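Appendix C: a fully annotated inverse folding record. The material below is reproduced so that readers can follow the format used throughout the book. The structure is listed first as tokens, followed by the designed sequence.
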């Protein structure tokens, strides 16, 4: 086989659809193996559809005078950040013999134990992988969703399957990849995100942002989507299409979330969607229930350079006790305006948002307890864990704070078995339906956990 084509080319292109400039092999070699039937190509744009991202929205296509074909070409603006796909730029994929994955022994090396709720979910995940079916794991924040995947992933790897764990956010990839590498030390785990050094790696276990799946095609035997309700995945149909096309037609599909949307919740209740719930955290403590605190017209107060009294009091209490805290604000503009006001209370208060170039370093400082209070947008509503924090939401009635966002934000509190409790406060100028639904969601999960004997406190 290696005499017929370079095995590096085979492993690089298998399960991918890529532009020529993304393939680190000469065009002459690609053309040769296309003639031999090992590589095929498709136009990047076909009848107003992008074959990479699945975009069909007319306003997201544009035309340009193309130097390559000397005609006016159409290109896709939806995925332009990954390189221009146009009518005359083909996408190449491997159609020759598939590379073999050989894993002789069980690669899982983990000596932890699962809670009763985790054990039931773990068995369901294994069953879904074995039967190549779909499953929704509806688990509260801090239930230990990653740990329930271990046995299922292990079984898939032993059967020489390719597994992908996809998530909408880079932060989650950066947190998951080292955890999976630790428990599967003999497997080279690929972590894929914008600028990742693993983008050329062929691995049986891949952790990727959903955006990176635009480059894959029928690659995975098992696809697990973490935080399936998170922005932008839940609103972007092209990302959902990317997940679908990256999986083989017979692939097992596992979805993880603490906050399924209303449609999925209804499908669960009516028996139309297979699911398993984990209503309790692994440490068997109840979920912290939010406190609603009226703080007046907080927008006017901040405009005057004043922190509303209830928010200031809450913040000072944490400072005096030396307790770490996250304070969520509805947008970057407000956060940047108010950060100096908060720093007057204590110099060790930082702020972070999605476009912050120092975002990773600031989150790491918080993890190391070098920062006491971190102001943040919803970028930290999920995917990060700080063991002993309190949380405040400023302007909880703002539209950005949906039911799912508020449940996830509340889930930042009490995640550690050493510190299973904490304070979550919604500061508001009037209650909203989303606030009430988030509160009731948490109450209902605690009730179900108690009824099933899954919590002690």
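Designed amino acids, in order:
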């Amino acid at each position: 086989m290696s005499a017929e084509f370079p095995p590096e080319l085979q492993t690089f292109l298998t399960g991918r659809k890529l532009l020529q400039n993304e393939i680190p092999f000469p065009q002459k070699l690609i053309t040769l193996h296309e003639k031999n039937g090992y590589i095929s190509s498709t136009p990047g744009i076909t009848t107003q559809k992008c074959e990479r991202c699945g975009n069909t929205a007319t306003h997201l296509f544009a035309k340009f005078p193309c130097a390559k074909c000397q005609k006016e070409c159409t290109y896709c603006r939806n995925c332009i950040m990954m390189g221009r796909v146009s009518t005359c730029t083909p996408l190449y994929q491997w159609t020759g013999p598939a590379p073999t994955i050989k894993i002789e022994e069980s690669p899982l090396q983990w000596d932890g134990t699962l809670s009763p709720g985790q054990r039931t979910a773990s068995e369901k995940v294994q069953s879904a992988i074995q039967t190549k079916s779909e499953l929704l794991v509806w688990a509260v924040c801090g239930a230990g969703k990653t740990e329930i995947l271990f046995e299922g992933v292990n079984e898939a790897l032993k059967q020489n399957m390719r597994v992908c764990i996809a998530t909408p956010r880079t932060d989650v990839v950066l947190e998951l990849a080292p955890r999976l590498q630790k428990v599967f030390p003999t497997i080279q785990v690929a972590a894929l995100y914008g600028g990742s050094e693993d983008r050329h790696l062929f691995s049986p276990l891949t952790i990727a942002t959903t955006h990176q799946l635009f480059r894959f095609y029928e690659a995975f035997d098992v696809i697990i989507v973490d935080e399936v309700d998170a922005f932008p995945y839940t609103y972007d149909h092209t990302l959902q299409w990317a997940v679908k096309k990256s999986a083989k037609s017979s692939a097992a599909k596992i979805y993880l979330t603490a906050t399924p949307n209303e449609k999925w919740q209804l499908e669960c209740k009516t028996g139309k969607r297979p699911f398993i719930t984990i209503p309790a955290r692994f440490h068997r403590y109840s979920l912290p229930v939010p406190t609603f605190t009226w703080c007046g017209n907080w927008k006017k107060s901040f405009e005057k350079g004043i922190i509303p009294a209830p928010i200031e009091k809450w913040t000072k209490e944490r400072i005096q006790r030396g307790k770490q805290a996250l304070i969520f604000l509805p947008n970057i503009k407000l956060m940047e305006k108010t950060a100096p006001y908060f720093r007057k209370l204590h110099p060790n208060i930082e702020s972070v948002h999605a476009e912050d170039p120092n975002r990773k370093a600031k989150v790491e400082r918080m993890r190391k307890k070098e920062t006491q209070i971190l102001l943040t947008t919803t970028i930290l509503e999920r995917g990060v864990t700080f063991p002993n924090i309190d949380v405040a939401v400023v302007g909880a009635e703002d539209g950005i704070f949906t039911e799912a966002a508020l449940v996830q934000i509340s889930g930042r509190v009490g995640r550690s078995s050493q510190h299973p409790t904490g304070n979550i406060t919604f500061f508001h100028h009037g209650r909203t339906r989303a606030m009430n639904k988030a509160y009731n969601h948490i109450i209902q999960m605690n009730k179900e956990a108690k009824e099933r004997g899954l919590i002690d406190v």
